[in-house]
Amino acid sequence: MSALTPQQIADRVRDGMLLNDRATRAMGMEVTDIAPGTATLTMRVREDMLNGHDTCHGGLITTLADSAFAFACNSHGELTVAASIAVDFLAPGRKDDLLTARAFEVSKSGRTGLYDCEVSNQRGERVAVFRGRSHTMKGKPAAGNLAA
């Protein structure tokens, strides 16, 4: 058997993580793209995601970005968790908006990674920017069986 390519590992991580990621599935998120160090997820803003101002709750926008961050930092195949995050909201999300979170690796050294994520709506307007720092658990697979 041949070794898996980095893209095959990222694809298997996506599939394995989605099986167990109940929060991502419950919010209707979809992983539209994944590659080593990067992931793109989408989420349609539903009525039950609106706050008292009739805009998407900031915690749910953060959750979308955090999920993109999680898929991006686990895409290398080793179990990786968030160590810290920061998010800035730039514009509101509205009912029926299709929000897209694009996360990408800025730096990865040893067990520490740094990832940026931009959340935008279907018009390409930035809704939020997010930065996450990750910690990798060496030797533990990110999801399921990553063997060739």
- Beta fraction: 35-45%
Classified by CATH, the class is Alpha Beta
The ordered string of helix (H) and strand (E) elements is HHEEHEEEE
Q: What gap, in angstroms, lies between the N and C termini? A: 7 Å
Number of helices: 3
Looking across the biggest beta sheet, what order are the strands in? Answer: 1-2-4-5-6-3
Largest sheet: 6 strands, antiparallel
CATH topology: Thiol Ester Dehydrase, Chain A
CATH superfamily: Hotdog Thioesterase
Oligomer: single chain
Low-confidence parts, pLDDT < 50 over ≥5 residues?
Answer: none
Tell me the Rg in angstroms: 15 Å
Please bin the fraction of helical residues.
25-40%
CATH architecture: Roll
Output the structural class: alpha+beta
Give the overall silhouette. Answer: globular
Instruction: Indicate the mean pLDDT.
Output: 95
| Number of E-state strands | 6
Number of domains: 1
Ordered list of secondary-structure elements with their pairings:
Layout: H1 6-20, H2 22-26, E1 30-35, E2 38-44, H3 58-74, E3 78-89, E4 98-109, E5 112-120, E6 126-141
Antiparallel strand pairs: 1-2, 2-4, 3-6, 4-5, 5-6
Quick recap:
With 148 residues, this protein is of the alpha+beta class. It is built from three helices and six strands.
Describe this protein's structure.
By secondary structure, the chain is an alpha+beta fold. It has a single domain (6-141), classed as Thiol Ester Dehydrase, Chain A (Roll), CATH 3.10.129.10. The chain has helices at 6-20, 22-26, 58-74, and strands at 30-35, 38-44, 78-89, 98-109, 112-120, 126-141. The protein has a six-stranded antiparallel sheet. A hairpin with a 2-residue loop joins strand 1 (30-35) and strand 2 (38-44). The longest helix is centred in the middle third of the chain and has 17 residues, at 58-74.
